[in-house]
Amino acid sequence: MPPFLRGLGLGLSLIVAIGPQNAFVLRQGLARRWALLAALACALCDTALITLGVLGVGGLLARHPALVTAGTLLGAAFLTWYGLRSLRAALNPGHAGLHAAPDGAVTAPARVIGTAAAFSLLNPHALLDTVVLIGGASAGLSGSGRTAFLLGTVLASWGWFFTLAVAGRALAPVMAHPQAWRVLDLLIGATLLMTAAGLLTTAGLLTTAGLGHGL
User: Fold this and answer.
1) 146 touches 54 (CB < 8 A)
2) What is the per-residue pLDDT across 23-80, written as a single tens digit (0 to 9) for each?
3) Which terminus of the chain has a lower count of CB atoms within 10 Å, N or C?
4) What are phi and psi of 168, to 5 degrees?
5) Residue 83, number of CB atoms within 10 A of its CB
6) Half-sphere exposure of 87 toward its Cβ, with a 13 Å CA cutoff?
7) pTM of the model
8) Which of 185, 203, 206, 71 has its CA nearest to residue 126?
């Protein structure tokens, strides 16, 4: 398979799974509030991470598990905070937050960019997918092949996030009822908290593994 198609297929297989970035872009699309900006911010962050991975940063992180563990704990804390925020919005819609709309979407452009960047850069799962897995998959390529692989994975990220933003806007009429937003908030909150729990479990395993090898 050509490197470009390999990169495109791998990128889609990793990014389509439900996660914090997808949930955030979808929420902004459903609320019709800066959805394209959210998609752009997520796509730019992914592009930077994928590029770093293909250029070999994934190998550096693999040699320093303490950095991975620290990032995992920081990411878990952020995801827990945002997950609890989503659950609170579902249980008490009147307290969605200073910078949020009644439906819980972020309304300030600067906050949209900051939140998207946090979901992208403080989410160890995203870092693992973009930097380590994609970087490792490109290790056997060189020259034009590596460039084509990089372009394929980047295209997958951009295409998916903007498709999600546009789809969210199209589905907005379905979310006209407050009860629908409460259900979405519950699903997003549960997803983020489960992701955070998984990250903490991973951090514990990494620590155990490190101690077992005398690191």
Assistant:
1) yes
2) 888 888 888 888 899 999 999 999 998 888 888 765 565 566 676 666 667 667 766 8
3) N
4) -60, -45
5) 22
6) 12
7) 0.66
8) 71
Distance, CA of 54 to CA of 212 (rounded, Å): 30
DSSP count for the chain of H helices, then E strands: 10, 0
The residues, any chain, with a CB within 8 Å of residue 201's CB and separated by 6 or more, are none
- How far, in Å, are 49, 62, 118, 140, 161 from residue 55 at the CA level? 10, 14, 22, 12, 23
Compute φ and ψ for 55, nearest 5 degrees. Answer: -80, -5
Alpha-carbon gap, residue 35 to 109, rounded angstroms: 10
Tokens of 156: 């997958």
Burial of 145 (0-12, 13-18, 19+ CB in 10 A): middle
**For the chain, how many residues are written?**
215
Residue 74, both tokens = 């920081």
Closest CA to 126 of 25, 19, 26, 206: 19
What is the DSSP annotation of 149-193?
Answer: HHHHHHHHHHHHHHHHHHHHHHTGGGGGSHHHHHHHHHHHHHHHH
